[in-house]
Amino acid sequence: MLKKIDHIGIAVKSLDAAVPYYENALGLKCEGIEEVAEQKVKTAFFSLGGVHIELLEPTSPDSPIAKFLEKNPHGGVHHLAFESSDIRGELAHLKEKGVALINEEPKIGAHAKQIAFLHPKSTMGVLTEICQDGEGGCSCGH
Ligand code: ZN
Fold it and tell me: How far is the CA of 137 from the centre of ligand 1 (A)?
């Protein structure tokens, strides 16, 4: 079952340029910057009303975010992430409903969360991520 919107992922060319807008103009506090090697991004996290905003800067020209920025040179909303209490069950359910999965198996994202993406062709054009907290909720022993 989906629990809530966990975060909104926003592609930016440069965290150095984007973070001051969120901090100074919007008045949000940057909660941390983390590089996620597997996704070839550097992320900055903000939080408002229990929903996180995840700014994503590419760390390599073949990062998915670099490709997104080629099409959207000013940056923009990249993905929407829903939190699930059971990511594997959620993926099985979505597959059964005919939703195309980019990741059949969860991968490890920022904050050691398990994450998996659904294909935009099945989600009305919105790149959708399902995530589950790394701590506690995982039954696989990691
Ligand atoms: Zn995300």
Answer: 18
CA gap 97, 111 in Å, rounded: 29
Distance 103 CA to ligand 1 centre (A): 13
Ligand 1 mean position to 104 CA, how many Å? Answer: 16
Centre of ligand 1 to C-alpha 141, Å, is 23
Query: Is residue 41's pLDDT more than 70?
Result: yes
Question: What local confidence, expressed as pLDDT, does residue 136 receive?
Answer: 46
Q: How far is CA 80 from the centre of its chain?
A: 7
Each residue of 61-81: pLDDT tens digit? 999 999 999 999 999 999 999
Q: Which domains does the chain have, with CATH numbers?
A: 2-132 (3.10.180.10)
Round to whole Å and give the CA distance between 64 and 79. Answer: 12
Compute the distance from residue 36 Cα to the ligand 1 centre, in Å.
Answer: 11
One-letter amino acid of 46: F
The chain-wide mean pLDDT, for the chain, equals 92
Residue bearing the bigger pLDDT, 125 or 135 = 125
Q: Among residues 98, 135, 128, which one has the least CA distance to residue 113?
A: 135
